[in-house]
# Entry
Amino acid sequence: MAGMVTLAAQNDHPMKHVELSAATRALHLARMAAAPLDILVIGGGITGAGIALDAATRGYRVGLIERGDFASGTSSWSTKLVHGGIRYLPQFDVPLVREALIERGHLLRIAPHLVHPLAFVLPLYKDSRHPVGLPVAPPFGLGLGAILDTGLTLYDRLAGRENIAPHRRLSRAETQMRAHMLLPGGINGGFLYYDAQTDDTRLTLAVLRTAVALGALTANYCEATGFALEDGHIVGAYVRDTLRDATTAQGASHHLTKQQGDTMMIHARHIVNATGVWAEVTERLAQESAPQLRIVPSKGAHLVFARETLDMPAMQVEQVAQETAGEAIVLPETEDGRIIFLVPWRSRVLVGTTDTAMPRVGPAAANDDDIAYLLNHLNRYLRRKVTRADIISTYAGYRPLLELHGATGIHAALATRRLSRTHALVEGSNGLLSISGGKLTTYRRMAEETLDRIDAREGRQPAHPTRRLKLIGAWGWAEARLIVYERGMALGLDTEVIAHLGGSYGTEALDVLTLVEEEPDLGERLIADLPVIRAEVVQACRAELALTLADVLVRRTHLAVLDRLRGVGVAQEVAALMAAELGWRDAERERQVAAYSELARELAGPLAGRLPTHEELRLGQA
# Structure
C-alpha cells in the first residue's frame, strides 16, 4: 500500500472509484469486527477523517466510527473559511497563525476544487479603535493604519511561500467602492488581504473517502459505548449500531452477523479519541477518572442572507468559471473585540460569528441573543438596515476550546478569547490517545501529529505523505474541468449548476453527470433558486454514505442552511429518491420526513415559526 500512496502523491495518479453505500457500511463494520485493527478512530469529523487518511497512507489497517453522521458536529457549522486566523495575531498566538497559514497552503494544493482563495476587505473608519480585536487602542486612532499594516505584513510573512498574495492598502474611494454596502461616511481607507474558503462538510467527506480509497474502513451511526481493557490497557471498543432499524440501511441485515442495536467488539492496538467537543466525555468513558483534556465548548452562530439583501454582487459568469465567490467584508469592530465577517458563499452571504463559552453542549441553534447580537453589529455599518424577516436561515455549532493551564475555571468570565485555539494530543494511562482543539484549517497537521505518536509507539520512522497527496476529486481536476463543463452543457444544465457540481465534487462531478445521462430528470433542480440537482441525492446514497434524510438535506447539499424553508418543502421528494436507493418502505419514508421536519424546526430556533409543520405538508399534499 505504501508504494501506491507514494506514486499517487508524486504523480497525481487517480485512484479507484470509491463506493460508500449502506451495503459498504455493513461490509466495513463486519470487517472491523472480524479481525483486529491497527488503529480505531472514534469520531467522524474533519480531525477523525484526517487521522484515518494519514493512517491509511502509512499502511496501517485503520477503521473509523462516528456515532452520528460524518461532520455532523463542529465540522459542518463553521464559517466555511480556511484561514490563518488574523484575529489571533493581536493575542500574540503567532505559532498558531503560522501553523494555520502553512496548512492553508497545503489545502489549496491538495483540494483545489474545494478550497479557493478569497479576498477580504477591512475598512477603517475614523472612529475605529479596536479593529480585528486589537487589545490596545492608540490615542485618537493615530497610527492605527500603520499598526494594521505591520500586522498584515507579519501575516503575509508567516505564510512564507504559501502566501496567496500580499496585502495592500486601499484608498478611501477604493474602500468605499469595494465595501459599498457599508455606510460611506467616516471611512478613511482600508486594507485588502487574502485567505481561503471551503465547503467544510464536503472537505470532510473528501478526506474520509480518500482514506477509504486507500483501504480505510468506516461506518457512521456507530457509537462507542465502552472500552475493553487488558492489564489496564485499552484493547478494543464496544460499538453499537445506532440506526433505527434495518430498513434504514439497504442490505444491512444481510451483511451483519448481529442485529442492529446490538453491541459488537472492535479490537485495535491503538485507539484514537477524535470526538471534538465530546473528547473529555470520551476520556471518562475510557475510565479516566481525571481526563487530561479540559474543554470549554464555545458556540459560534451565523446568519444567512441572500446576496441581494446585503447588496453583495451576485455570482458572475467569470466567477462561476473560476470558482471564486467574490470578496468578503470584515466589519470594522465590535464592542467586545470580536470579528464579524460577511462571507459570500454560494448564492448566499454568511454573517458571523459569535463566540460564546457554554457550560455544556446543547442544541446547535442560534438563539434570540445570537440573532440580536449579529443584527445589531450589522446595522451599525450597513447602508440598508436588515431585520429578522430578511434572514434566510441561521445556524450554530460548537468549537472545542482548550482551557489554558492554570486558568481559574470553566466559567471564568466565559471569556473564550482567553482560551487556546491550538490543539492538544494527550495519552491516557490506559493508552487512549485523545486529540482535540484546533481549527478546521489545521486538521491535517493534527492528524499528522497523532500518527507520528503512533509511529513512535511502533518504533517506525514517520513519513508525511498527506502533505502532497491530493484528495479525491482533485486527481486530474485541472484536465477534467473542461470535460465537466462540456458534458454539463450537452445535458442542458446551466452554468451555475455545472459550476456547483465542479466545486462540490471535482472530477467526481463526472459521476453525477453520468446519473443525469442515464436518467435525465435527475438533472432538475430541487429548489428553483439553488443549483442543487436531484442526482446529488442519488450520489449521496451510493458514494457518500447518506443514510437519513438529514444526511442529505443538512450536510450533503446544505439545503437546510441555503433554503428559507430549510429543505422542508422538498423533503418528500428527496425521501422518495432515497427510498428507491435505500429500500425504504412507505412507513420508513414517512418517518424520515417527520423526523426531518422536527429537526429543521429545532435548527431554526427562534425562526421556526416560518416553517410548515409536517402535518401541514402532509395535508397539503393530500
